[in-house]
Design brief:
It catalyses: 4-CDP-2-C-methyl-D-erythritol 2-phosphate = 2-C-methyl-D-erythritol 2,4-cyclic diphosphate + CMP; 2-C-methyl-D-erythritol 4-phosphate + CTP + H(+) = 4-CDP-2-C-methyl-D-erythritol + diphosphate. This protein is of the alpha/beta class. It is built from 12 helices and 19 strands. The strands form 5 sheets. Strands 1, 4, 5, 6, 7, 10, 11 and 12 form an 8-stranded mixed beta sheet that branches. The chain has a 5-stranded mixed beta sheet with strand order 16-13-19-17-18. A two-stranded antiparallel ribbon has the order 2-3.
Length: 396
């Protein structure tokens, strides 16, 4: 008997704004979770299963660069497609893209559910031997009240008949594609794909969900997700420090924290001589025991001449992520008489945060002078000192 083809649609076309109240500018599916973007974790949960034929991601039209920056590489990962104005419309775009490949089964997964387990996924697929559709669900344990006006209780529901739906939701491809096409002609929006299947008269089964299979929606959900991950590995906090200085030479601007600041001189160095980013890079590398910036980007290598120091910082952040860690916070102090730094701090926090995939609220940038003492006081150069707090899996 021919093995059935199993395709996965990961729906990542939303803006994820409700999860951004903590200062992060990234949509929730692209935010870092223990050093790895949420969407990358979600996709990898399916690519790690050998029986999955292909995975297709549906993205927001403005997120092509963000998606490309995930750096996902797998022969079974199809090029992304652009979603629609609603989740329902986005799923339909994914189904249309898969139709020429004629899948047997399709699993539809929320991008913001990075903890789908092989057990849950396998149970959904197994149920499709007997049913047209299947979804993981958890029994409702809280008492559920119904209210007509949002204030006064109208009735109490029978919770023994209620369950909370999760994803992935699985279906026989031809049936759910047809149901979605018909549903698109209606003036209503369905809350999930199982509801569309129910409306179309398909038989949909429930399998046991998983308490950890949460959907990240609000900022506090990231804290819960971090706790879930910490149960998989014992984490420890490491501290690294960095120190760098550069002298001035004739020029018209300095680069500090990834921001160009007009000045009557520039900093001398092989790259852009961004003393703040160099110190931060060394601090991160020190926290994870990976040497210093000169080990990874030797000044004798001409390819780094004039290079933006954000390249060095991103490399350090990528090493943290590769090791399964996450950057908790960064602190850098710039010591100089001029230029004035304070008004540029928010821009520096933004650049550093975007480079490392962390919220600007986790980054402190401070400045002070040397009270006219020494080479800094004589405005011959400047110094930066940095520290990095990094959470890493414990290795005994």
């Amino acid at each position: 008997m021919r093995q059935k083809s199993i395709f996965v649609i990961v729906v990542a076309a939303g803006k994820g704004e409700r999860a951004s109240a903590d200062g992060s500018t990234d949509p929730k599916q692209y935010r870092s979770l223990a050093g790895i973007p949420v969407l990358a974790r979600t996709i990898r949960a399916f690519l790690d299963l050998p029986y999955v034929t292909n995975v297709l991601t549906v993205i927001h039209p403005d997120h092509a660069d963000r998606y490309a920056s995930l750096g996902l590489a797998d022969d079974r990962l199809l090029p992304p497609v652009t979603g629609g104005a609603s989740r329902q419309a986005s799923v339909l775009e994914g189904l249309k893209a898969l139709a020429p490949l004629r899948p047997d089964l399709v699993l539809i997964q929320d991008a913001a559910r990075p903890f789908a387990t092989p057990q849950v996924i396998g149970d959904v697929i197994a149920a499709l031997d007997q049913y047209d559709g299947a979804l993981p669900a958890l029994p409702v344990t809280d008492t559920i009240k119904r209210s007509l006006d949002g204030r006064q209780v109208a009735t109490t529901e029978d919770r023994s008949q209620l369950a909370a739906a999760q994803t992935p939701q699985g279906f026989r491809f031809g049936q759910i594609f047809s149901a979605h096409m018909r549903a698109a002609t209606l003036p209503r929006q369905f809350t999930d794909d199982a509801e569309i299947a129910e409306w179309a008269g398909l038989r949909v089964a429930m399998v046991m969900g998983d308490r950890d299979n949460i959907k990240i929606t609000h900022p506090q959900d990231f804290a819960q997700a971090e706790r879930i991950l910490s149960g998989d590995a014992i984490m420890e906090t490491r501290i690294g420090s960095g120190f760098d200085f550069h002298q001035f030479e004739p020029g018209d601007a300095v680069w500090l924290g990834g921001v160009r600041i007009p000045h009557h001189a520039k900093l001398k160095g092989h790259s852009d001589a961004d003393v703040a980013l160099h110190a931060l890079t060394d601090a991160i590398l020190g926290a994870i025991g990976e040497g210093d910036i000169g080990v990874h980007f030797p000044p004798s290598d001409m390819q780094w001449q004039g290079a933006a120091s954000t390249i060095f910082l991103k490399h350090a952040g990528d090493l943290v992520a590769k090791a399964g860690g996450r950057i908790v916070n960064l602190d850098v102090t710039i010591v100089c008489e001029a230029p004035k730094i304070a008004s540029h701090v928010p821009a520096m926090q933004r650049v550093i945060g975007e480079t490392l995939g962390i919220a600007p609220t986790r980054i402190a940038v401070k400045a002070t002078t040397s009270e006219k003492l020494g080479f800094i006081g004589r405005e011959e150069g400047m110094v930066a000192m940095a520290s990095a707090s990094v959470e890493m899996p414990r290795v005994d």
